[in-house]
């Protein structure tokens, strides 16, 4: 069968927005991968969708679906996909049993985006220790929760899971004994060829003396970012500004909250710029990016993008996780609030140090996050599984067991909700 006649169906919890979230960025990269292979690509979400979201040359077909609705079965049967991609494990829980029931030969792929159970465990750690710099000391024993059971069961049920962070890839293998044959490491890829080349060049080449001020950037509704911004404004920025009174802190990103605004209003040195569409061009104006992430998982998209485009960034161990910054000793993440403040001050005032950090950051990102060979290897892996799908599923038979037992629980709950909805709305 040629790729021209193959079909990939993406089932997403929400409409992917690559400018706002790393998860949206990741989803668009996967969709474009299958488009390059001449697949017919469908994107199904429970949100209202619009094909106008994609570029003019995209042929993605969109459909709006509902939870606990047998209409989904009819639609997926008509599409008859060769590959089905779930955008997170909750989506697989909700729709996986329907996919396997209607299209048992479809190869199922879980895009974890990040290990949700890891992020939640770290969030709980910080909640219990509100003054802690970050959740680096959160022990593995805190990861064995009902939430991790659900996510790991989803990984086992799927034919392949895409892991965005090397740290999480190793965690799943070593701590939870997930076989490598069920995992594929696929990081975010920076694609400068898709951006304006002149802008990309300016971002990397604009000198220390041509830049000023500090930047914080992120989707402010995302819990780790909300916490990061509040921690920065409350505990870190007052000390940085005391040492560097001429510098301002600019806040960029959508979905600001009333509490965030109250904290920003306390200091005239903090400026809220809100949503900015052309982020690469914006990054070239600043001298230092501040990313004191205290909890989270996966790759931090705005940290990766900032470093890759030549904006030196001060972050925590959590913010640097999976970015291979340890390969460049000078870049190292801050281990405490005092070290974070000291690093920010040195980058802002020491031109030679700033230039060296900028160079090492770009080198690190180029070495690990610019190789399109990741997608070539992904397709080889998928094709090998597809060519011998029955053997692959026998080899990892635990997935079949989980479908037989725990999957039935979500199946019959979904069936009950379907019937309930029909009673409420018999039309």
- Rg computed from alpha carbons, rounded to a whole number of angstroms: 23 Å
Strand content: 5-15%
- Distance between termini? 41 Å
On the 0-100 scale, what is the average pLDDT? 90
Biggest β-sheet: strands ordered side by side in the sheet? 3-2-1-4-5-6-7
The coarse silhouette is elongated
The percent of residues in helical segments reads 40-55%
Query: What is the H/E string?
Result: EHEEHEHEHHEHEHEHEHEHEHEHHHHHHH
List low-pLDDT spans.
193-200
Question: Describe it for me?
Answer:
This protein is of the alpha/beta class. It has helices at 22-36, 71-79, 89-102, 116-128, 146-157, 166-174, 197-205, 223-243, 258-265, 279-283, 301-308, 317-320, 337-349, 351-369, 373-387, 389-395, 398-404, 406-424, and strands at residues 7-12, 40-45, 61-64, 83-86, 107-111, 160-163, 183-185, 214-217, 249-252, 270-274, 288-291, 313-315. The strands form two sheets. Strands 3-2-1-4-5-6-7 form a seven-stranded parallel sheet, with helices on both faces. Strands 10-9-8-11-12 form a five-stranded parallel sheet, with helices on both faces. Residues 193-200 have low confidence and may be disordered.
């Amino acid at each position: 069968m040629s790729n021209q006649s193959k079909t990939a169906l993406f089932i997403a919890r929400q409409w992917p927005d690559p400018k706002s979230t790393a998860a949206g960025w990741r989803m668009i990269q996967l969709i474009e991968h299958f488009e390059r292979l001449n697949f017919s690509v469908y994107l199904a979400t429970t949100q209202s969708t619009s094909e106008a979201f994609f570029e003019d040359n995209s042929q993605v077909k969109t459909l709006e679906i509902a939870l606990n609705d047998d209409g989904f079965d009819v639609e997926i049967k008509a599409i008859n996909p060769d590959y089905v991609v779930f955008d997170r494990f909750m989506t697989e829980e909700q729709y996986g049993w329907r996919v396997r029931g209607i299209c048992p030969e479809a190869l199922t792929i879980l895009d974890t985006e990040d290990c949700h159970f890891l992020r939640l465990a770290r969030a709980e750690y910080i909640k219990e220790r509100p003054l802690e710099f970050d959740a680096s000391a959160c022990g593995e024993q805190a990861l064995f929760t009902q939430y991790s059971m659900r996510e790991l069961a989803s990984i086992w049920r799927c034919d392949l899971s895409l892991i965005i962070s090397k740290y999480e890839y190793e965690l799943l293998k070593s701590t939870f004994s997930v076989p490598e044959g069920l995992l594929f490491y696929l990081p975010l890829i920076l694609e400068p060829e898709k951006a304006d080349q002149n802008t990309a060049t300016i971002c990397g080449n604009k000198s220390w003396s041509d830049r000023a001020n500090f930047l914080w950037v992120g989707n402010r509704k995302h819990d780790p970012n909300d916490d990061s911004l509040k921690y920065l404004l409350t505990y870190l920025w007052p000390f940085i500004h005391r040492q560097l009174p001429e510098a301002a802190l600019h806040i960029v990103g959508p979905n600001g909250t009333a509490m965030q605004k109250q904290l920003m209003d306390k200091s005239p040195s903090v400026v809220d710029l809100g949503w900015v569409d052309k982020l690469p061009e914006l990054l070239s104006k600043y001298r230092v990016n501040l990313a004191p992430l205290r909890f989270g998982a996966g790759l931090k998209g705005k940290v990766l993008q900032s470093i890759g485009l030549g904006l030196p960034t001060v972050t925590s161990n959590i913010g640097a996780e999976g970015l291979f910054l340890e390969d460049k000793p000078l870049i190292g993440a801050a281990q405490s609030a005092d070290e974070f403040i000291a690093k920010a001050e040195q980058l802002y005032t020491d031109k030679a140090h700033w230039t060296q950090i900028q160079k090492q950051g770009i080198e690190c990102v180029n070495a690990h996050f610019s190789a399109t060979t990741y997608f070539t290897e992904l397709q080889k892996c998928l094709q090998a599984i597809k060519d011998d799908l029955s053997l692959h599923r026998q080899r990892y038979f635990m997935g079949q067991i989980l479908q037989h037992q725990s999957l039935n629980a979500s199946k019959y709950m979904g069936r009950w909700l379907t019937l309930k909805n029909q009673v409420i709305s018999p039309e």
